[in-house]
Structures are given as structure tokens and as C-alpha cells.
Design goal:
It comes from Acinetobacter johnsonii. By secondary structure, the chain is mostly helical. The chain is 58% helix and 8% strand.
């Protein structure tokens, strides 16, 4: 009997235990240390799905945190929607004397389909309010390039998460282009 208990304990210590959480509606993978690898995986999958490094866009400059209706940051909103709908499953692995690690259990193609599906949903209204108040958005709101993107996004009466990401991407691009022009101007003046 002792040998049986010792062998079970040894297997658990070496292999670790895994658990599939039942309710994912409360999980915010971007703020908890145990989800660091999961957050990295989701960022990588979002970038791969849309063939653009959206994870490098500093959305937190515009908006961040949570509102009554969920996360305001767009990638968090996509991830939260995929987890809350149980379309994406996570597994947590526990090992003795090691930090717990959570990773995505769902196959990659299903996760990408979920990302696409939920990126077509409406962006959080508080995120839109934050964008409207964002100083760089206000600065470039009359720029024809940005105006065209915004008008196309709101043509159907809603702005999707993906369209919001594209708008913020264009605001950041305009800001960087403006910074480059200012730098060149400063160099000329020296």
C-alpha cells in the first residue's frame, strides 16, 4: 500500500497534474502571472491570424482595464470572448515546487477561427469613448487617411474589434510619420 501511494506521489511530482477550468468567463490572461505563456500564445495567434503585429500596438495608450461590459483593450476583448464562450479551452499544469503554467488546449485552427469570429463583434463602447478622447486621435481626426478608415468602419452602424484595431493602428502610423517629419525638420535646422 505504501509503495502504491509513493508511486502515485512520484508520478504527480514528475509529470504534474493538469486541470481544465470549467468557467473561463472570469479569466483575464493578460494580468495574471500564471497566464503569461497563454497571453503570449494569444498575441502570437492574433498576429498570425491577421498577418499584422497587432500585439505591438500600444492599445493601452488609448484604453485599458475593464468596464462593466468586459475588457476595453481589443485583443483582451477577443480572448475574453473566446474563453467566455468556451470555444477556447485552457489547461493548467501543476508541478511540485514549480509555478503553475496555463496553456491553450484547443487546436490552433479552432483558436484562429474563434479570433476571427469575435474580432467581427462590436468593440466595447467604453473603448470607443476612450478612443474619441485620445489626444492623438483628436489631432489626426481630420486627416483624410484616418477619416477614410473611420468612415469605412462605421458605415454599417457599428465598429468591430478588428476595425477598431485598424483605426488605432492608423493613428499610431500617422503619429510616427509626424515624429519622423519633425525629426528631419530638427536635423535640417541644426
Amino acid at each position: 500500500m505504501k509503495k502504491l501511494l509513493l508511486s502515485i506521489a512520484s508520478v504527480i511530482m514528475i509529470g504534474g497534474c493538469t486541470e481544465v477550468p470549467k468557467d473561463m468567463s472570469h479569466v483575464d490572461v493578460f494580468t495574471k502571472d500564471r497566464y503569461l505563456s497563454t497571453a503570449y500564445e494569444f498575441n502570437k495567434l492574433v498576429d498570425d491570424t491577421f498577418k499584422y503585429t497587432y500585439s505591438n500596438i500600444p492599445f493601452l495608450m488609448v484604453t485599458g482595464g475593464w468596464s462593466v461590459s468586459g475588457p476595453k483593450e481589443p485583443i483582451s476583448q477577443i480572448v475574453y470572448s473566446c474563453l467566455a464562450s468556451n470555444e477556447v479551452q485552457l489547461v493548467t499544469k501543476y508541478k511540485l515546487f514549480m509555478p503553475e503554467v496555463t496553456y491553450i488546449k484547443t487546436p490552433e485552427n479552432q483558436v484562429k477561427n474563434c479570433i476571427i469570429k469575435h474580432s467581427n463583434g462590436s468593440i466595447n463602447a467604453d473603448a470607443l469613448n476612450d478612443l474619441k478622447a485620445f489626444t492623438l486621435f483628436q489631432k489626426y481626426s481630420d486627416n483624410p487617411f484616418l477619416r477614410k478608415t473611420v468612415d469605412a468602419a462605421k458605415a454599417d452602424g457599428k465598429i468591430s474589434v478588428k476595425e477598431y484595431m485598424d483605426i488605432v493602428q492608423n493613428v499610431i502610423k500617422l503619429s510616427k510619420a509626424d515624429e519622423q517629419v519633425q525629426l528631419e525638420k530638427t536635423i535640417q535646422e541644426l
